[in-house]
Structure formats: structure tokens, C-alpha cells
Give the backbone structure.
Amino acid sequence: MKSLTLILVFVCILFITSASAQQRNVIDDEAKVPEYVVPDVLTRFSGGKVKSAKVWNTKQRPEILQKFTEEVYGKVPGNLGITEVKVWETSPDALKGKAVRRQLSLFFRKGNRNLEVNVLMYLPQQQKKVPVFLAYNFTGNHAIINDPNIRLTEAWVNNDPSVGTINNQVTEQSRGSDSNSWLVEEILDAGYGLVTVYYGDVDPDKDDFADGIHPFFYQENQLHPKFDEWGSIAAWAWGLSRVMDYLEKDELVDATKVAVLGHSRLGKTALWAGATDQRFAMVISNESGCGGAALSNRIFGETVQIINTSFPHWFCGNFKKYNNNEAELPVDQHMLLALIAPRPLYVASAEGDKWADPRGEFLAAKYASPVYKLLGKEGLPVTEMPEINNPVMGTIGYHIRSGKHDLAEYDWQQYIRFADKFFK
Ligand code: GTR
């Protein structure tokens, strides 16, 4: 009896260690990807095929959107519009006469709470309304270009002493520190404006629901969102929609031609913004990876369990149910991409960014394409992954470029071409 118990204990230990080893091993070898199933985007949850644009728009799309809202990103618990717009400046000859620079703050107020969101705009010097790229930045508006006139955010930022970000506050030293990722002059030369906001103005990127926009919606004694309520990604996406509210009123911007763009976690955010707010005419996901453009059911690189552990605040509480349990997800990320249809969508990967699963990003774009087709658009123009540095552009665009995880010059050059295809 004693030996039987010992054997049982031994078997249990073996089982537990191999299970946790399985959890720890990140797959970055194509041959090791386990078999998986991707739900068909045009099959109803109740069974049956979607065969018309009408059924897509009135039934399938709202149902998919609802699943993502309740199980992945979380719902916005109420309404709050911009309380005040304060325009700090509109300078007609910024960047040595190349641009109009406009800076303004959107204030959100409720009870004794006040949130300031700083918006920086560079626009080509034209008399007419211009199409714009709208993109969050990671480290403050002043970091995207070395322009001494850009206002410094007072919001919490991640410390980075190498660029003078200390005590979680930016300093003069970090002006232009992220300028490699922002092709301001090329964007302007191509006839586009750039509208950018520091994402931490809306919600500081830390596992703390007492700051940023979340507490504005709390009921008495509530300390964090409910399980089906918004994490940070949904809060940042909400912020993009509020910027859009403003852009619709800006006399210099063509709000029917706003391309929302984001890199990495902000790529996930851009996709969710595009899915929830159809005013965004184009959506661009730069290496958004897990919880962004990459399929979750394909276990490669970052997984649901890993992302929920490293960044427990990004998604809603319900998403944790799918840690090491992706097959139970009612949706996969190609269905998120399909929510953008029929609007132009660009998905980009990088060869050196295996963590984000380039192939999983490509496949999601491919499996979203039937919806574009149903709505009379091309979707992805190819069925096999293109070569490195070989962009393809249907109504869905895709490239995998050489190099690492980054928002690079090459990426912007493709986005400008893609915008030209639809906005010019
Ligand atoms: C990583 C994270 C990714 C991606 C990236 C980023 O640490 O695992 O999902 O979002 O951060 O945003 O830079």
C-alpha cells in the first residue's frame, strides 16, 4: 500500500513538472507548433454559414465584436466625452517652415477627477483638410522629434535614465529620443499629417487601476474593473476614439481619412480601436503579435498565458480563463482583423520578431480575407507568405521586413504607399 502511494506521488510529481515545463517552453521553431484549429470567421456561433453582407453586418459582426469585448479586451463601463479642449498653439511655420504644428489638450473631468491628454499635430502647410496618421507614442510627444516647442507630459512614464526619464517623469533630455521611429518630414512631404499622443496620458502602462481613465467609471468602493470590463488596451483604444471626436471638429484635418496606427502593444490597441470605432478609415498594425494580429491558437512565441502573466492589466479579467487554454477561446485574432473590413488594413511583421509570430500574423490576415471578399473587397492578394521585404497590398496589406521588433523607416514607407492607394 505504502509503495503504491509512493508510486502515485511520483507519477503526480512527474505530471506536474512536465505540465509546468510545457508552460515555460516558448516555441520558436515552426516544426514544433502543435496542431490547432482556427474558427471559421463566416460560421455563426449558432451554426450555419454567413452568406451575405447583410448577415455579416447585422448578426455575425456584432456577435464577434461582443465576444472580443467580453472575453478579451473588456467593455468600456460608461460614456465620457471631452470636457474641454485647450489649444495651446497653432504655429504656421514649424520645422523650418515645413509644417503647421498644433498642440492642444483634451481634458476629461468627472467629480473631482481630471485627466489631461496632450495632442501633438504636425500638418502639411496646405489650405485644405488633410488625411492624417493617428498614432500613440511610447515615451511622450516630445520624444518623437527634437523640437524644443513640444510640451512635456506630466503623466507617469517608465523610468529610463539613458534618456533622462527619472522619478517616472520626462525631462528635457529625452527630446527626440525616439525620433528614429517617427518619419515626421517624410509623412509631411507625402501630404499627410501626424497626430500623436503619449499613451500613458490616458492610462499609465502599469498594473494599477487606480490611475488613468479607469477610476472615472468606478462605483463607490470599486478598486478595479470587473472581469468583463476594460483593461489598459481597451482604455487606450477608448482614448483614440476621443481624439477622433476632436479631429472631427478640427478644420485642418480630413476626419474621413484617419489611419490609426500602432506598434506592438500599441498595434494591439490600434486594432481594437479600429474594430470598435468604424470612423477610423484605415488601420495599421505594426508587429502587434499576441493579442493583436497573431493567431492565439497557433502556439508560437508569446502566448496568452505569457502575456497575461507579464502584463495582467492589458486585457480584461475574463481573458485569463484562456491561459494555456486557447482552444476554448470563442474567437481568434483573424476575427478581430475581420472586424476592420471592408476598410483598408495593414498588418506588418519583422523577421527578427519571432516573439510576435510573423507567420501567425500573416495567417490571421489571410483568414480574415473571406470577410473582405464577402463585402466586395480583395482582402490579402496572396495566399502564401511573401518573401522578406516584399510588401503585398490588397485591401489588406502585409509585409515582413528584415530586422528587429521596431517601428522602422521601411514600415512607414509602406504605410505611406498604402495610404496613397486609398486616400489619394
Ligand atoms: C512585449 C510584449 C509584446 C509586445 C511588446 C511591446 O514585452 O510581450 O506583447 O506588446 O512588449 O509592446 O513592445
Remarks:
- DSSP finds ten helices and ten strands in the chain.
- Strands lie at 84-93, 99-110, 113-124, 130-137, 193-198, 253-263, 282-286, 345-350, 392-393, 396-401.
- Residues 264-265, 289-290, 302, 307, 310 surround beta-D-galactopyranuronic acid (CB under 6 Å).
- The chain has a mean pLDDT of 95.
